[in-house]
Amino acid sequence: MKYSISFRNPLTHFIHVELELDTSQVDIISLALPIWRPGRYEAANYAKNIRGFKAISSGNSLLPYRKISHSMWELDTRATDKVMVSYDYFAFKMDAGNSWYDEELIYINFINCMLYDIQQLNEACQVFIDIPDNYSIACGLKRQRKTFVADNYYELVDSPLLASAEVEHIEYSAGNVQFHIWLNGRHPLDRDQITKAFRKFSDKQVEMMGEFPEEEYHFLFHLLPYKLYHGVEHHDSTVICLGPAEALNDEDLYSQFLGVSSHELFHAWNIIRIRPKEIMPYEFHKPVTFPTGFVAEGFTTYYGDLFLVRSGVFDRDWYFNELNVLFKRHFSNFGRLNYSVVDSSVDLWIDGYSVSAPERKSSIYVEGAMVALCLDLMIRESTTNKYSLDDVMRELWLHYGKQNIGYTFDDIQALCEKYYGNSLAEFFKEHVTGLASKEDLISELLNSVGCQLMKSEAESSLEKYFGLRLSDNNGGLRVSQIAPGSIGERHFSLNDEILTINNEEASMEKINSYDSSSYVFMIRRNYKDLEINITPGTDRYFPIYKIEPIAQPSERQQEAFRQWLGCDLIVDV
């Protein structure tokens, strides 16, 4: 398939796409645009951004076509041996999985906008892009000047492109791989500092997995002036959107910058190549479901942070804080008691990335990371650190990913059992396909590495006494979460606006200072002001969980900790 992309008025944000097809051997061709993209397993329906579709014959006449689905066009080509299809695509959504075109930037995720002949998915693709001569180009595809080539459609749409006159380029090598960091947007980052950090975690990932599947890899960053956090993985690159860029040297955002980068790099093995059988190969015109999203995203979430502490980019306390954040997200999501992580994986297509019914589902990222943490520590404890989840990931790479073989849920359990040395049927039944609480198990497993899971009351009296979580909505406080079975559930609704508490104006700044034997709330619900009088009971909600070292860890526990995180448990102050 031969494409050409050109640009007219950047203020309209439309890119013009042409597709040339040889139709001498076919009477009917069906052209499709993907309805989803790898990395986000839900309907995207990119066809909503197409306008001006037309097909021209070799005789320069319009060919009739008909839409046979929302994302598929059918052409009658009996009267011509060549067809030129053209259309405009609206590239005006900035995140890691979409496309953007304006006066300063050309950013294309080809999966958004490149129609394909459903009979030619495995044929070579060539794309000419009329990029300004003064633009730097970041893309993993092979190219000669402005012409890019891919072995097939799958490679093409897995190779995002970023081009701009302002993009900054940094190179480093790690594990015999050449890495490229492309920074689009103004930022305060120190080149030497980030290069050193990237080299460290890249080295550690390649070291653990034994090899890297590509000779080169590209980090494509959009560093934005507003708040955004999003990353998407590809076979030899990743796109990461992060902001506000001016705060990138702040501890929290810098941590996120490196965390998402490590996460996305590990995807080069896990999900790009170590892939569920259900999506081997990708079928872009069909809905996709699979039960092992917790492996694809949850295991990657676990390892993304793990590599940063093992490589020495961050220290023990940083990793403890990341685990505490994970614990908060886990224990605060009551959907884990309604839907298992497997069921939530299957349901990605319908609501995996959006808010739906309260407490309906668990997060494959969070719950999958909790499963990975448990399995890693279980295998380590069972084998006295001879084996770990690292061995499971390496075998998944060698015998599945590297061989282009998809794995099943049963394969995951069998591999974990192989290195654990015993059956894990009960664990998978209770904690993967089931809804059992992980609190006691996590506490027990952390002890094996000289740590403990500490539980304390919520700092906010509204969370602690009433099970109410509030959020700041344009300066007003609104109820954003209610603990099931709590006092708050009997008196409040989601989105209630809290006006005053005990005759004081409600604000996030005071959220931890409200403490009384009785409470009077003035709220606004459905445009009506109401007064609510309630008294705290004996039950407590939204407890805080934190990991801490035990008082006197044994030498065995300290060594187990070193084997796990690559650093010392006891830190001299």
Automatic annotation (TrEMBL):
Gene3D superfamilies: 2.60.40.3650, Neutral Protease Domain 2
Domain PDZ: 450-538
Recorded superkingdom: Bacteria
Name listed for the protein in its UniProt record: PDZ domain-containing protein
